Amino acid sequence: MPTDFIRAISAHVDPPDLAVVLTASVDTVTRRLAARGAHRRFEHDLDKVRREPGL
User: Fold this and answer.
1) Residue 30: exposed, middle, or buried by beta-carbon count in 10 A (0-12, 13-18, 19+)?
2) How far is the C-alpha of 25 from the C-alpha of 50, rounded, in Å?
3) Alpha helices in the chain (DSSP H)
C-alpha cells in the first residue's frame, strides 16, 4: 500500500501508549511455527515469514 494512503487513514488516530516489537531470526520463527502450528492466516505461508524481515 502507498505510504501516503496509510498516513491519510491514520491521520486522526491516537498513537499507541506503548509499542512492543519482538524480533527473532527467520530460522527461529520457522522452527517455532513448525512446532506449534500456525494460528493466524499470516503464519500459514512460511515464504511470507521469510520475506518479512526485508520489508
Assistant:
1) middle
2) 9
3) 3-10, 26-36, 46-51
